[in-house]
Amino acid sequence: MREAGTPGSRRPADAGATRLGRLALLPLFVDLDGKPALVAGDGPAAAWKAELLAAAGAEVRVAAPAPGPELTRLLAAGDAAGRLLHLPRPWLPGDLDGTAVAVADAADGDEARRFADAARSAGVPCNVIDRPAFGTFQFGSVVNRSPVVVAIATKGAAPILAQAIRRRIETLLPPSLSDWAALAARMRGAVMDRLAPGAARRAFWEALSERAFGPAPTAHDEAALATFLAPHAAPGGRVTLVGAGPGDPGLLTMNAVRTLQSADVILFDALVSDAVLELARREARRMLVGKRGGRDSCRQEDINDLMVKLARQGRHVVRLKAGDPSVFGRAGEELERLAAEGIPAAVMPGITAASAMAASLGVSLTHRDSARAVRFVTGHTRDGGLPDDVDWNRIAEPATTTVFYMGARTAAAIRDRLLAAGMARDTPAVAVGAVSRPDERRWTGPLGELADGVAAMSPGHPVLIGVGDVWRAVRAGPDAVVASDERRETA
Fold this sequence. Notes:
By secondary structure, this protein is of the alpha/beta class. It has helices spanning 44-55, 69-77, 109-122, 159-172, 177-194, 199-211, 219-226, 254-261, 274-277, 300-312, 331-340, 353-361, 392-395, 411-420, 450-455, 472-475, 484-490, and strands at residues 2-3, 36-40, 59-63, 83-87, 101-104, 126-128, 141-145, 148-152, 238-243, 265-268, 285-288, 316-321, 345-348, 373-378, 400-405, 428-433, 441-446, 463-467.
């Protein structure tokens, strides 16, 4: 076992401390509750800014001689839309006196300049809608889960992009997050009084944060969190088995990312990509516990012992496995050991390599015209050969799709067993190395040429082998028997 950061190990890009990169804007959050604000303008943009300021609790005065439909509806809503006062005239420089913030929807550049000059003279931060050169601050695109508020800004370069980012974030943050943040506010005083800085406090906040992405809090949740505040309460350790997927970080589940962000220690396999590790909590200790055929490897017993040891120290241990933990990932052995030791354990499934391979090749594993069954078969045993208890006659059935995991060294034996079981030599076959990664390699051809095709692929990559009629569409492609990067260059 090697700890990331030592010679010969892999480590994400945070190996050394780096300075914060240049910010186009400094994000600030201003408390406007009960403070005066001015909005000058009568159009829909001015109405939206007035509503936004009122939602933040500001006492908003709207200077507009003839308000448009949107502003009229907003003013008619009265207290329901916040605290709004209509000034039925153009704005005046004196309106800015004592104002916390000011916003103008200027008709032209001259008015924008006059408003900005008046705000500067009054010492008031101002925003001129769609004219960022005149203002001193800009609004962002807002995700509202108050008291959690997220804002996205692009310095006016791409407002539509900011809105697209907002929509993406909104899918990640459930509406119930507001209730969890309110619960956090209620409990914060007790946490600060009763829990010492460091591991105890972080354990409480992580326990709350993990629950915050589920349903709204219940009395049971609050009682469970309160146990952290009991005298002499010692947070217990736990282990989460997380599927890292085949390599592309975009294929991680949201639950997997959240779990990586809460880890104290990450025990990761050799096949886990650096891009996936980049998504883990920066402070988490990383330890490589990989097992690779034909190379120095960690014994499974040692990995089990390490998980138990770290969990008993009160750590959240993430066992990060390539693909899905429950598909040739020895999850069963690890869960059995943890259960025997009384250590809480959970599993976060991942996208298994066979699914990623099918997606990469544009194939359905269960196309109804070609396959009625799918089988995942290990391509080697502990001694490096094929397993003895595989029913090759069943695998050779015409309406079956079979994917062999880690089959590079046994490709010839796989071919021979299938041919001996009656499978035709021209049965479509594929082999994919480093599936979903930038250096992905592919071979397609008939089963009879499988061994030669795999031998011609770049060495060192984990290889999946697919056999069955569903791969015929891939084989039929004019440029199928080339590396994936060559496919992109010739497309």
